[in-house]
């Protein structure tokens, strides 16, 4: 799973007068967050992988095609950042540290990459087992029409691809 | 069939893969023949009276210039004590109110309490702001809870207003005129129902996107009275004949039967091991 630079970013952002405001540009927002496929080319040396992803244009590479694409991709991450940041301001550093430790442990309980895991522990920690959103209804990964090649998915996950 | 270009399982939720293709298609058609979503082109109104809340709505759903549904239901159930009128894109209001209703049901089963209107409003506000207005739903929420009778309006971007009376939709200006003129604090039930009816009627008369019947929903501490339709349109079509045909109306002239002969080519038996 993509374990981003959680604590490090938290401390730098809340260090500025206790007010957390991301005034940096789009490019830096891209870097802090989960990499979006197509925006950062995945081939070797960062060059476009024409064999797997086909031809591209520069415009498609730089900006997402839908205004919500970026914000939706990083929504969970941004929510967590905001919540941990305010938690740190209220209760001190120990609170987000402990919570993030639990999140990190729960995130590691997974099946193999090509199998869908229920993420029960993570859901319970987050409280999302008691709410329904569009991510529970639309595009259910257990019912996706396309199946990936298991060996390639494992290799991609381990970084060998 | 396993595809070798799928390296990660898709994330649940909205999928923006086709957004670039749609943008390119729209450019191709220049003038836009892309399919338009079904909008409700509506008049909805709500009024707080002495014992509760009255919500009213028309029943027409339009798809550009065509009336797509003459008996569309725009007052949605959220909780036994909360109902919601929706204007905007029909699918968006429908799905959003269903999600809201599910969330509040989970909450009330977890905690054993009736949901409050402010909870519904906050959930809606968070959800609509998250999608930056792409979900085209303007909603009027009305209900009675332990803190009193409330009426809220939520815009597509997540803006919230607490109001004693409100009208929304394409016919809202006409309806609001009636409401502004005749609204009084602490009205009686019949006066409130009549006020909402006249307001929706004004919206129907002055707006092309609203029409057909008027639905009224009265929510009080004792319960809910969903009157559908409260007033039927004077222009209802009167079908004089029946269009159902009894069997045997069409004569069968000839009949030919071809039996399909199927032979058993191969038979193999596999035993299932029940472990």
Automatic annotation (TrEMBL), chain A:
Q: Where is the signal peptide?
A: none
Keywords for this protein: Chaperone
Q: A GO CC term?
A: cytoplasm
Superkingdom as given in the UniProt entry: Eukaryota
Keyword Lipid metabolism included in the entry's annotation? no
Give the stretches traversing the membrane.
none
Show the Pfam families listed in the entry.
UMP1
Instruction: Give the UniProt record's GO annotations in the biological process aspect.
Output: proteasome assembly
Spell out the family assignment given in the record's similarity comment. Answer: Belongs to the POMP/UMP1 family.
Instruction: From the Swiss-Prot or TrEMBL record, give the protein name.
Output: Proteasome maturation protein
Automatic annotation (TrEMBL), chain B:
| Catalysis performed (reactions) | Cleavage of peptide bonds with very broad specificity
What are the alphabetically sorted keywords of the record?
Cytoplasm, Hydrolase, Nucleus, Protease, Proteasome, Threonine protease
The record places domain Proteasome beta subunit C-terminal at 239-269
Q: Which domain of life is it from?
A: Eukaryota
The subcellular location is: Cytoplasm; Nucleus
Which Gene Ontology MF annotations are present?
A: threonine-type endopeptidase activity
**Membership in a protein family:** Belongs to the peptidase T1B family.
Which PANTHER family does UniProt cross-reference here? METALLOPROTEASE TLDD, PROTEASOME SUBUNIT BETA
Quaternary structure, per UniProt, is: Component of the proteasome complex.
Kindly provide the name given to this protein in its UniProt entry.
Proteasome subunit beta
Which species is this UniProt entry from?
Eleginops maclovinus
């Amino acid at each position: 799973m993509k374990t981003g630079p959680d604590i490090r970013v938290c401390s730098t952002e809340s260090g500025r007068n206790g007010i957390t405001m991301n005034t940096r540009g789009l490019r830096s927002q891209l870097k802090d967050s989960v990499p979006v496929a197509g925006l950062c080319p995945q081939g070797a040396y960062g060059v476009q992988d024409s064999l797997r992803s086909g031809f591209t244009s520069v415009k498609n590479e730089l900006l997402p095609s839908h205004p919500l694409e970026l914000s939706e991709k990083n929504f969970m991450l941004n929510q967590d950042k905001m919540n941990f940041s305010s938690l740190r301001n209220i209760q001190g550093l120990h609170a987000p540290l402990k919570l993030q430790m639990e999140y990190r442990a729960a995130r590691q309980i997974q099946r193999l990459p090509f199998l869908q895991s229920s993420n029960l522990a993570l859901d319970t920690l987050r409280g999302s087992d008691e709410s329904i959103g569009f991510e529970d209804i639309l595009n259910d990964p257990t019912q996706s029409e396309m199946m990936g090649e298991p060996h390639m998915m494992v290799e991609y996950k381990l970084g060998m691809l | 069939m396993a595809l070798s270009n799928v390296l990660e399982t898709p994330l649940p939720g909205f999928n923006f893969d086709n957004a670039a293709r749609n943008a390119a298609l729209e450019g191709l058609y220049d003038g836009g023949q892309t399919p338009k979503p079904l909008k409700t082109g509506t008049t909805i109104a709500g009024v707080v009276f002495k014992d509760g809340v009255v919500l009213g709505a028309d029943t027409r759903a339009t798809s550009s210039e065509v009336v797509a549904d003459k008996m569309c239901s725009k007052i949605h159930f959220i909780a036994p004590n909360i109902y919601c009128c929706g204007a905007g894109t029909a699918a968006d209001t429908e799905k959003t109110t269903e999600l809201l209703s599910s969330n509040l049901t989970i909450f009330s089963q977890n905690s054993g309490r009736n949901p409050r209107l402010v909870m519904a409003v906050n959930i809606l506000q968070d959800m609509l702001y998250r999608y930056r207005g792409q979900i085209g739903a303007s909603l009027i929420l009305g209900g009675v809870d332990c803190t009193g009778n409330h009426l809220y309006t939520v815009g597509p971007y997540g803006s919230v207003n607490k109001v004693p009376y409100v009208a929304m939709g394409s016919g809202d200006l006409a309806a609001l005129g009636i409401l502004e003129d005749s609204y009084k604090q602490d009205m009686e039930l019949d006066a409130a129902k009549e006020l909402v009816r006249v307001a929706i009627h004004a919206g129907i008369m002055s707006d092309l996107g609203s029409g057909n019947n008027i639905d009224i929903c009265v929510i009080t501490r004792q319960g809910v009275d969903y009157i559908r339709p409260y007033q039927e349109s004077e222009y209802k079509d009167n079908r004089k004949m029946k269009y159902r045909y009894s069997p045997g109306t069409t004569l069968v002239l000839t009949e030919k039967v071809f039996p399909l002969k199927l032979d058993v080519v191969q038979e193999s038996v596999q035993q299932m091991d029940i472990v």
